[in-house]
Design goal:
The protein has 259 residues and is of the alpha/beta class. The chain has 9 helices and 12 strands. Strands 6-7-8-3-9-10 form a 6-stranded mixed β-sheet, with helices on both faces. It has a 4-stranded antiparallel β-sheet with strand order 2-1-4-5, covered by helices on one side. Strands 11-12 form a two-stranded antiparallel ribbon. The termini are far apart.
């Protein structure tokens, strides 16, 4: 499965946020979209997932126009976890996760044994099965994020889009979330597209990285190709070095000392 966008212009009314963007998203890969605040990262993700209508250009999913998919059919192909999400206070974890099966059900359908199996698998894969009977508001922020990812996984999408999945999480839960996303990708083959702020996370987990600067694509490629000292200066306006450590597959970023 591939998602191909060509010459996208995205904005709100007369205000153009992203212009002339080309991007290709492949199944089985982890693609991270990075860039400074306000550069248009989340706007791109919203346009690729029909949360925001693009103004110009085209988006095709396996050669088929993005707008041609019925909502349930689209949800069976593409899973989306926006930056902001909430659930009623009385929802239990399993109840919330089960809502991910809606794209596969008819009106007034009850959960089948197959649905129950998929829901349990999603909770086990995200480490939330032991929370299944708890209220969604009784668990921690890191656990809540895992529950939401489990909910989207029960859709059984081919590509999973996550908008800043580590926002508001402490360092431990950020690392747990990144490790879980990488494991899900490697074990299940689900493609992942993430908007990320943390460049170290992007380096660690990504197969490809797209850099957005001032609403346009600055660069695209493997982490080693994209995250360079020049990119840090030109996109983020900071000085830093990319350090390669023998025996470590991924490099580290060392920023200049504060004066």
């Amino acid at each position: 499965m591939e998602v191909n966008a060509t010459q996208l212009q995205i904005g709100y009314g007369d205000y153009v946020v992203v212009e002339d963007l080309d991007i290709c998203i492949g199944k089985h890969e982890i693609t991270s979209i990075i860039g400074p605040n306000g550069s248009g990262k989340s706007t791109v993700l919203k346009a690729l997932t029909r949360l925001l209508k693009y103004q110009k250009g085209s988006v095709f999913v396996d050669g088929r126009d993005l707008q041609d998919f019925a909502p349930k059919e689209f949800a069976r192909r593409i899973g989306v976890l926006p930056q902001m999400h909430s659930a009623p206070a009385d929802f239990r974890v399993k109840e919330l996760v089960s809502y991910g099966r809606m794209p596969h059900q008819g009106f007034f359908s009850r959960l089948s044994k197959e649905d129950e199996r998929i829901i349990e698998e999603a909770m086990r894969a995200t480490g939330t099965y032991h929370l299944r009977d708890k209220s969604i508001h009784e668990i921690s922020g890191g656990e809540t994020q895992r529950v939401w990812i489990a909910t989207v996984l029960t859709q059984q999408p081919e590509i999973l889009f996550l908008d800043e999945p580590t926002t508001y999480l402490d360092i431990s839960h950020q690392l747990d979330t990144m490790q879980m996303v990488k494991r899900l990708n490697r074990e299940t083959g689900v493609g992942v597209v993430m908007v990320l702020h943390d460049l170290s996370h992007a380096l660690e987990v990504s197969d490809r990285i797209v850099v957005i600067k001032d609403g346009q694509k600055y660069s695209e490629g493997t982490p080693n190709e994209v995250i360079t000292s020049q990119m840090l200066r030109e996109v983020y306006h900071v000085d830093g070095e990319i350090i390669h450590i023998p025996g470590r597959s991924k490099p580290l970023i060392a920023f200049a000392e504060l004066a």
